[in-house]
């Protein structure tokens, strides 16, 4: 038995070996014995014994990690009593031995705390008694200091553990998180806030400075966790450290007191100025007396009493790392305070007081340079400044008496930071953002803001540009010594900096543009005189091209640059821009002569051309330029007219497609620019005539280079078409060309009929089709398509055709492509499109072939903009559906038989998603009368539906949630299938249908756009059909009854979840939720009454009476039918119910 001390000792030895403490053979033995122990839920008692009887750290580590894993994976299989016993054991263990672990093995303590919090989270919704963790942990807070820290550690880990998460059982996780938010989080936050107040006032005295600082760090981390809790369950992206707005509940009133941010600022200062204990310094600074050692945080002082007394200023010194961690957490928490939602403050004065404290606190930090030498504190401080500015309008900032002094100090701090350009460049983005955010409001508040503000901004802009020149020189001359990432090689960093520069450059634009012109000429002159190396020149000139593009881009959408009297000497802004653009176009001509032009420079050209296009191409350019100086803009550029200006862009596009095929990003962005030129539209507003629509693509039709591309689009000179791995760019290429083709066909001056022009354009594709068709010997030897020589032409063909099909936005253009693909409508097996059915059956296992093939077919059957409209006497709709069904079956049957995948997503799920999307488009195209198939005994529809449902069932719930963004067609297909084909859906076995319902249940909590709505619609379809057929003697009625009897909890779980979503208000569309909810209530009346009773039992007497009234009103004037009129009445009732309940439970 495990209670034998000898066996426990043996396990301890194995655990030591398991964590690397023995020979290789001992480690192997340990793995063989211990891993099964931690993977079988029956071993939970054995692991508990290790915790109870062992003091070996490795054994404790293994046992806690093993129990955490078992409870997480096998929660439903573990007996309820064993769960409760483990919870109570761990809680008692932490109370009795937690202080020792805190001092001697804090990492082991962390594992015990994590185990406890995991059990609390998993059991939270199972019983109200499992939610009493706050009462239990409060016992720690009234014991010793070490117990206090342990208790705060539990709270800290619990607030992190309860955060909503993506993945499996997301619906349950969110329900747990919201219940925790509503019942426990505020009480936990009060513990942290009151402890901070007592720290600040000196009401806590801990003789040991190490323990004191450790306690402060723990309470600051707890405070930060509470403020950063995901209150709305949106599961923000972990890749960013920004939380846009903190959506605190209105009941967190203590944060409306300006004393809270002041407390954090004072504690931050103490971290950097106090050589003695923090609490001693706080007391010396004028705080009240101290309590006895070991007192808990539940003192009489309320948060509203946070004292205004600050810390005495002491000489700066280098504090220990633990103190620095505390300082950083102070700033991180202040960032969250600055991000509080505006509506949280019930009075404007409360918000103004909080803002005033933030301004005064940050001014003091700058003035004293408190902790700004530390990189982490510097970064958090920059974030704080950025958040203060982003969360408040300039007019609100100006109301603070300290605003002028704040901007002056902030200006100097920013200038000093830009001078030290090597240090933490990402942090400076927040600083620059502060000034960029002020630019636009300056137009309206010139009389109320400090007069020097626009001067500050212009000087900061110039300093930032000069810092880019310094960075460029260092990157080119000393690349190995630079511990920085080059923004020229990182698109995200580069875009952030250019976006900020676009805004900054609008302030005193002429001064900034003149400086850039000077730098351009200086850099070129230095290169010509060999004063700088070629590498330095290329790096600097690349930055300057980007800067020119950013400055010109500031003029887009009417964003007129701010000028001053000093700017007028440079002339109108469009003339200055023409001078800047002329330098870039000249540089483009020069570098086009060289094959070794750096890719970074080519990318800067494309950025400049894109910004230039937005502002100065087409009729919009004439409205901007000609008002002030006709033809002046083109003349400065050295062009005769606007058409020649456009030619500058198109020539560069053609050159890149011919000569820059070795630069993938250049090809990608070139094609994006070409597409924008071809498809761009502007609604131009003029003073002398009514608004009119300008399609810039029409301007391209008169350009020789564009026409050359249309006529010779498959020439060998366009080298990128033949680069393996560039297949996706072919789609964009032909999408753009087809747009121009259809514009030309539709123009009055086009030559030849539409069919003739289209056939001429499609000649290269016809050649590929003919070659592949001949390979199959006119369809008699389909397996010949397996020849490797067919692979590349087939991939290229479907990618090209998809691009062309994407450009078919009208019935005329689509019909032209359809006639070309279905060239033998009376002999479908001989039409070009039938080749893809054969290809799908041969290349189904090759994702590089099958995915583009399915994507093309999906696009071809998509009735976007109602472009698919066949004649009434035409059978083309049925023919099209049968072709897409044959492709689906040809691929689907084979992929479902395969079970071994190296890359599950790429080889299976990605193609499955496209196949489901393709079939959904066909089902929803409204060009097929599906009743025809049953009438004439054609199994095409039923076979395709069964196969598609099998595809859905082949995706486990966990994988579905992991790849939900790519697998959204799963939900759209289920919505269509349950809406129009429920009898076929009911042919699934009850467990299979329950699996689909479970997937839809998880989807109700999805954040992917449209998924939750489709899940509501799917449940509505199912429930409506069930309710209508429940008492029917038809086979469908029997199937419904069998499902409800064999899977009684399936729809009940959905009902419970929907009520939870309604009550918490986390589902935005009450209308979408109301439709299925009424059917669920009528179908499961007893479950509805049970939910009602459970909710009533959790309320106080007063709330209970109100809630009973709300439930009565919910069903007022609602009868037992699912007619639209009845559903509409229920929707109105539900809207009132959800609003009243949320207000009552707040």
Automatic annotation (TrEMBL):
<keyword id="KW-0963">Cytoplasm</keyword>
<dbReference type="GO" id="GO:0005643">
    <property type="term" value="C:nuclear pore"/>
</dbReference>
<dbReference type="InterPro" id="IPR011989">
    <property type="entry name" value="ARM-like"/>
</dbReference>
<feature type="domain" description="Importin N-terminal">
    <location>
        <begin position="30"/>
        <end position="96"/>
    </location>
</feature>
<dbReference type="GO" id="GO:0005049">
    <property type="term" value="F:nuclear export signal receptor activity"/>
</dbReference>
<comment type="similarity">
    <text>Belongs to the exportin family.</text>
</comment>
<dbReference type="GO" id="GO:0031267">
    <property type="term" value="F:small GTPase binding"/>
</dbReference>
<dbReference type="InterPro" id="IPR044189">
    <property type="entry name" value="XPO4/7-like"/>
</dbReference>
<dbReference type="GO" id="GO:0005737">
    <property type="term" value="C:cytoplasm"/>
</dbReference>
<keyword id="KW-0653">Protein transport</keyword>
<protein>
    <submittedName>
        <fullName>Importin-beta N-terminal domain-containing protein</fullName>
    </submittedName>
</protein>
<dbReference type="InterPro" id="IPR001494">
    <property type="entry name" value="Importin-beta_N"/>
</dbReference>
<dbReference type="InterPro" id="IPR057947">
    <property type="entry name" value="TPR_XPO7/RBP17"/>
</dbReference>
<dbReference type="Pfam" id="PF03810">
    <property type="entry name" value="IBN_N"/>
</dbReference>
<keyword id="KW-0813">Transport</keyword>
<dbReference type="Pfam" id="PF25795">
    <property type="entry name" value="TPR_XPO7"/>
</dbReference>
<dbReference type="InterPro" id="IPR016024">
    <property type="entry name" value="ARM-type_fold"/>
</dbReference>
<dbReference type="GO" id="GO:0006611">
    <property type="term" value="P:protein export from nucleus"/>
</dbReference>
<keyword id="KW-0539">Nucleus</keyword>
């Amino acid at each position: 038995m495990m209670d034998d001390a000898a066996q426990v000792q043996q396990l301890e030895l194995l655990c030591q070996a398991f964590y690397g403490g023995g020979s290789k053979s001992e480690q192997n033995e340990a793995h063989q014995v211990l891993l099964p122990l931690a993977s079988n839920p029956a071993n939970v008692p054995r692991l508990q014994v290790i915790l109870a009887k062992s003091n070996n750290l490795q054994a404790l580590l293994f046992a806690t990690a093993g129990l955490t894993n078992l409870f997480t994976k096998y929660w439903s299989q573990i007996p309820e009593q064993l769960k409760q016993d483990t919870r109570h054991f761990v809680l008692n263990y932490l109370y009795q031995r937690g202080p020792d672990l805190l001092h001697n093995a804090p990492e082991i303590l962390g594992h015990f705390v994590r185990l406890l919090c995991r059990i609390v989270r998993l059991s939270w919704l199972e019983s109200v008694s499992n939610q009493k963790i706050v009462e239990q942990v409060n016992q720690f807070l009234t014991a010793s200091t070490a117990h206090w820290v342990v208790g705060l550690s539990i709270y800290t880990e619990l607030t992190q553990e309860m955060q909503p998460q993506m993945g499996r059982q997301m619906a349950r996780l969110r329900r747990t998180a919201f219940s925790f938010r509503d019942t426990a989080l505020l009480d936990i936050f009060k513990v942290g806030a009151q402890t901070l107040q007592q720290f600040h006032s000196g009401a806590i005295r801990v003789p040991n400075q190490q323990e004191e600082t450790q306690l402060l760090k723990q309470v600051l981390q707890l405070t930060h966790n509470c403020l950063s809790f995901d209150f709305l369950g949106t599961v923000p992206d972990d890749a960013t450290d920004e939380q846009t707005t903190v959506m605190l509940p209105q009941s967190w009133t203590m944060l409306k007191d300006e004393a809270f941010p002041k407390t954090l600022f004072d504690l931050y200062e103490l971290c950097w100025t106090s050589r003695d204990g923090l609490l001693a310094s706080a007391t010396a600074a004028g705080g009240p007396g101290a309590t006895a050692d070991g007192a808990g945080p539940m003192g009489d002082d309320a948060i509203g009493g946070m004292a205004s007394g600050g810390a005495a200023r002491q000489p700066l010194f280098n504090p220990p790392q633990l103190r620095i961690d505390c300082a950083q957490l102070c700033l991180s928490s202040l960032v969250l305070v600055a991000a509080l939602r505006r509506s949280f403050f019930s009075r404007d004065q409360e918000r103004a007081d909080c803002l005033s404290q933030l301004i005064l606190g940050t001014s003091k930090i700058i003035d004293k340079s408190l902790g700004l030498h530390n990189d982490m504190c510097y970064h958090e401080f920059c974030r704080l400044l950025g958040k203060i500015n982003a969360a408040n309008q300039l007019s609100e900032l100006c109301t603070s008496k300290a605003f002028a002094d704040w901007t002056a100090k902030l200006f100097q701090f920013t200038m000093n930071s830009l001078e030290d350009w090597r240090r933490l460049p990402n942090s400076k983005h927040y600083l620059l953002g502060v000034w960029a955010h002020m630019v636009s409001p300056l137009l309206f508040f010139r009389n109320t803001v400090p007069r020097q503000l626009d001067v500050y901004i212009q000087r900061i802009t110039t300093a930032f540009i000069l810092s880019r020149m310094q960075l460029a020189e260092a990157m080119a001359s000393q690349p190995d010594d630079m511990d920085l990432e080059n923004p020229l090689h990182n698109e995200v960093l580069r875009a952030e900096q250019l976006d900020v520069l676009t805004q900054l450059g609008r302030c005193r634009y002429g001064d900034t543009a003149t400086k850039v012109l000077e730098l351009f000429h200086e850099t070129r002159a230095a290169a010509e005189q060999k004063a700088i190396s070629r590498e330095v020149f290329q790096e600097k000139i690349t930055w300057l091209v980007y800067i020119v593009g950013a400055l010109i881009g500031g003029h887009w959408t009417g964003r007129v640059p701010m000028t001053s009297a000093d700017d007028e000497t440079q002339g109108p802004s469009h003339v200055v821009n023409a001078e800047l653009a002329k330098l870039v176009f000249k540089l483009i001509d020069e570098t086009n002569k060289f094959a070794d032009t750096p890719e970074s420079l080519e990318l800067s050209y494309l950025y400049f051309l894109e910004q230039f296009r937005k502002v100065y191409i087409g009729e919009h350019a004439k409205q901007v330029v000609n008002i002030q100086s006709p033809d002046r803009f083109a003349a400065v550029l050295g062009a005769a007219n606007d058409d020649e200006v456009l030619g500058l862009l198109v020539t560069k596009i053609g050159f890149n497609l011919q000569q820059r095929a070795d630069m993938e990003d250049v090809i990608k962005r070139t094609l994006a620019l070409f597409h924008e030129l071809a498809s761009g539209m502007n609604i131009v507003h003029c003073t002398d005539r009514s608004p009119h629509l300008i399609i810039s693509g029409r301007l391209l039709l008169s350009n020789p280079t564009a026409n050359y591309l249309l006529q010779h689009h498959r020439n060998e000179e366009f080298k990128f078409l033949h680069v393996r791995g560039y297949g996706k760019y072919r789609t964009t290429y032909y999408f753009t060309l087809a747009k121009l083709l259809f514009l030309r066909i539709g123009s009055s001056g086009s030559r030849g009929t539409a069919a003739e022009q289209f056939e001429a354009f499609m000649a290269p594709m016809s050649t590929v089709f003919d070659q592949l068709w001949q390979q199959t010997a006119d369809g008699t030897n389909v397996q010949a398509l397996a020849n490797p020589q067919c692979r590349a032409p087939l991939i290229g063909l479907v990618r090209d055709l998809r691009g062309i099909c994407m450009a078919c936005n009208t019935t005329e253009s689509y019909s032209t492509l359809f006639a070309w693909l279905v060239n033998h409508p009376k002999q479908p097996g001989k039409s070009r499109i039938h080749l893809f059915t054969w290809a799908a059956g041969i290349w189904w296992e090759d994702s590089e072939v099958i995915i583009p093939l399915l994507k093309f077919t999906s696009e071809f059957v998509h009735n976007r903009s109602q472009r698919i409209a066949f004649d009434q006497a035409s059978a083309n709709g049925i023919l099209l559906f049968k072709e897409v069904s044959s492709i689906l079956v040809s691929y689907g049957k084979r992929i479902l038989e395969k079970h071994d995948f190296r890359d599950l997503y790429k080889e299976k799920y990605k193609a499955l998603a496209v196949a489901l999307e393709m079939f959904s488009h066909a089902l929803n195209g409204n060009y097929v009368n599906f009743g025809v198939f049953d009438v004439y005994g054609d199994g095409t529809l039923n076979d395709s539906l069964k196969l598609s449902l099998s595809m859905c069932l082949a995706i486990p719930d966990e994988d579905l949630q992991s790849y939900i963004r790519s697998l959204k067609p799963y939900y759209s297909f289920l919505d269509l299938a349950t809406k129009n084909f429920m009898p076929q859906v009911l042919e699934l076995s009850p467990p299979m249908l329950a699996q689909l319902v479970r997937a839809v249940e998880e989807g109700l909590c999805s954040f992917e756009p449209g998924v939750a709505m489709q899940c509501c619609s799917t449940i509505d379809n199912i429930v409506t059909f069930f309710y209508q057929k429940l008492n029917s003697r038809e086979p469908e009625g029997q199937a419904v009854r069998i499902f409800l009897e064999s899977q009684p909890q399936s729809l009940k779980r959905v009902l419970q979840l929907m009520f939870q979503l309604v009550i918490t208000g986390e589902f935005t569309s009450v209308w979408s939720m109301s439709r299925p909810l009424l059917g669920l209530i009528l179908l499961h009346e007893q479950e509805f009454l049970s939910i009602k009773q459970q909710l009533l039992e959790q309320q106080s007497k007063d709330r209970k009476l109100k809630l009973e009234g709300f439930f009565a009103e919910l069903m007022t004037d609602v009868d037992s039918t699912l007619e639209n009129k009845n559903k509409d009445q229920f929707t109105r009732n539900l809207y009132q119910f959800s609003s009243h309940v949320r207000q009552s439970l707040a």
